[in-house]
UniProtKB/TrEMBL annotation:
<keyword id="KW-0472">Membrane</keyword>
<feature type="transmembrane region" description="Helical">
    <location>
        <begin position="71"/>
        <end position="93"/>
    </location>
</feature>
<dbReference type="GO" id="GO:0072659">
    <property type="term" value="P:protein localization to plasma membrane"/>
</dbReference>
<dbReference type="Pfam" id="PF06423">
    <property type="entry name" value="GWT1"/>
</dbReference>
<feature type="transmembrane region" description="Helical">
    <location>
        <begin position="210"/>
        <end position="236"/>
    </location>
</feature>
<dbReference type="GO" id="GO:0005783">
    <property type="term" value="C:endoplasmic reticulum"/>
</dbReference>
<dbReference type="GO" id="GO:0016020">
    <property type="term" value="C:membrane"/>
</dbReference>
<feature type="transmembrane region" description="Helical">
    <location>
        <begin position="29"/>
        <end position="51"/>
    </location>
</feature>
<feature type="transmembrane region" description="Helical">
    <location>
        <begin position="176"/>
        <end position="198"/>
    </location>
</feature>
<feature type="transmembrane region" description="Helical">
    <location>
        <begin position="304"/>
        <end position="324"/>
    </location>
</feature>
<keyword id="KW-1133">Transmembrane helix</keyword>
<feature type="transmembrane region" description="Helical">
    <location>
        <begin position="273"/>
        <end position="292"/>
    </location>
</feature>
<feature type="transmembrane region" description="Helical">
    <location>
        <begin position="100"/>
        <end position="123"/>
    </location>
</feature>
<keyword id="KW-0812">Transmembrane</keyword>
<feature type="transmembrane region" description="Helical">
    <location>
        <begin position="143"/>
        <end position="164"/>
    </location>
</feature>
<protein>
    <submittedName>
        <fullName>Phosphatidylinositol-glycan biosynthesis class W protein-like isoform X3</fullName>
    </submittedName>
</protein>
<dbReference type="GO" id="GO:0006506">
    <property type="term" value="P:GPI anchor biosynthetic process"/>
</dbReference>
Amino acid sequence: MDAGVGFYIVANALISPEARQTTLRCKSFLDWLSVLFLSMKACVPLLTLGLSRMIVVKGTDYQEHYSEYGVHWNFFFTLAVVKVLSTLFCCIFSGRCNSWILSIIICAGYQWCLYCGLEKYIINGWDGRGTRKGLLDANREGIFSSFGYIALYFAGVQLGQFLFRTRNTLFDWLKCLQGLTGFCIGCWLLLRVCRHVIGPISRRLVNLPYIIWIVALTTQELAILLAAELIISLLVSSQNQAKTKSSHKKSKSPNTDTAFTVSKLCILDAINYNGLLFFLICNLLTGAVNYAVKTLYTQTMQAIMILVVYMFLSCTPIVILRYFNIALKFW
């Protein structure tokens, strides 16, 4: 789950309007208000889900660890805060600096605050004994870690802008793969340095090592998936060329300058179509499993069966909705 929440932030950033460069330029104060209003409107479902989760968890006495987000806070509130503040930053710095610079500035500032005492406060509270008096102190992990998630979000936006560049040939995508691989290696090397200088990875703090770790994992997964897609495309292209050639001609190797199209996998495409709904369904199913089963004492075969049923129940409604082109996003 530590990697999962970071992946979700980056996944949202990869396909965000900022990554696709379709955001409105804020040229006046009215433009600011309009963009912020739309952003806050988009956060209403997230706030509703966050409040609902808090009420259900408190009402059912469901197991929770305050050290993750705090007493009342949860990840849905974090998503809402990231959405609004990232929009605000985009309005302020629109056309002035790119997303990488924003990410580095926010990350460096937040890490400096952690170094100057914020880390001790988040871990130990105001009195140094971990007590949670007051709304801020009770939810200090969730509130302050949001700044780390914002830095991670803008890193994802810049990565998305790189991926959304126009590429029409296989050679272009090979260059993209080369760039992702090189950047991934650089992130892993930088992570080793940061863990030695700053400290261990902490999802609770969302510190600099955590942010670099998530970026490294994301680029690694993207590079692996792109490499697999390229290999499949080469094989399919070779087969198609062999079929279209006449029997007396030898089949030639696929041309790297030919147009390249990315195939869509059924479940993956369905999840992309209703990402937040899939995330919510998985959360509910995870809670149901934890509530009904003593997971620490589950036998291997029982665990496998639970996972199979879990995957079926989480993927089936998403695939059905995609089949009928239904996107449950009304905001």
